[in-house]
Amino acid sequence: MNLTGGSITDVPGIRVGHFTDPRRPTGCTVVLADGGAVAGVDVRGAAPGTRETELLAPVNAVEQVHAVLLAGGSAFGLDAAGGVMRWLDERDIGVAVGQVRDGERTGTPIRVPIVPAAILFDLWVGDARIRPDAQAGYAACETASAEAPAEGCVGAGAGATVGKLFGIERAMKGGIGSASLRVGGVTIAALVAVNAVGDVVDPGSGAIVAGARTEDGQHLLGTTRALLRGELPAQLQVGGATTIGIVATDAVLTKAEATKIAQMAHDGLARSINPVHTMADGDTLFALATGRAGFSPNLTLLGAAAAEITAHAVLRAVMAAESLAGPGLPTLPAARDMRPAASSGSR
């Protein structure tokens, strides 16, 4: 089992496109499911910003989605899903709707694309009036490819930051990352935009690789250890963070099974982000099953694998990130800048 590489596009039928706004660090990322995919979702953070998540409940009617959008821009970024819908609509992709009479549809045929979405908060990085919109979502679709997607400070990860509990000025740069593996005859992969309040931890060693820094900015603080020492954080607005992502597989799954995979994938966030699922995070993970493998493996195996690749995608997101600096922007180092000090931090 190789956890050092791969991406979500290793799952047949999955394509990824990024839009990164050139005016400030923000953007969106779309995952297109060619032919549709059964989907589930699990929301663990206390401040989520989402669209169409209720539709994914196993008791509700629609079985498949056609794309999932991840975006910056806080709640404004949900507007980008409209652009994804427009792109799909132009290609006649969606759920067939309309009246049915004597077994045949009547009136003008139309298909409604199903595009769940989740957003993260990046409005304090640059001009907050600039955020992903419908045109950004459409542009992300135009770039979608089955090639391995770019990682780091692109798409939904462009304005992502981590370690914000003691203020943005002591935070570090987050990003977007992906990983995959093949197990039990199927492929399972993850794509995660990491914008956590907490620190990012290497799940293998337990070392903090990115997160809150000491007051002089030179070393990693260790957010949870600081909290347990009684150090109180700065007043942090609700919804000022959020890690969002997608787990995809070519296994055959029901909506209930996909929901369980999304739930188990959150264990990967807990292994790689500390603290996680806080009052300021809206942590949300989707699960997609294209069914192209033709069978369903053991669900416990699949869920355990989902957690592993989710944790690894989080680590890759921050290791691929680049430092942030410039007029009107906070100065935020990336994990690569702090690597010599990382061994001194731990959970």
Radius of gyration: 19 Å
Question: Globular, elongated, flat, extended or rod-shaped: what is the shape?
Answer: globular
| Main sheet makeup | 9 strands, mixed
The CATH C-level class name: Alpha Beta
Q: Would you count the extended β strands for me?
A: 18
CATH topology heading: L-amino peptidase D-ALA esterase/amidase
Helix coverage percent: 10-25%
The CATH superfamily bears the name L-amino peptidase D-ALA esterase/amidase
Number of domains: 1
Oligomer designation: single chain
The proportion of strand residues reads 25-35%
Structural class: alpha+beta
Low-confidence stretches: 340-346
Going by CATH, the architecture would be 4-Layer Sandwich
The number of helical segments is: 6
Distance between the termini: 26 Å
Would you list the SSEs in sequence order as H and E? Answer: EEEEHEEEEEHEEEEEEHEHEEHH
Mean pLDDT: 92
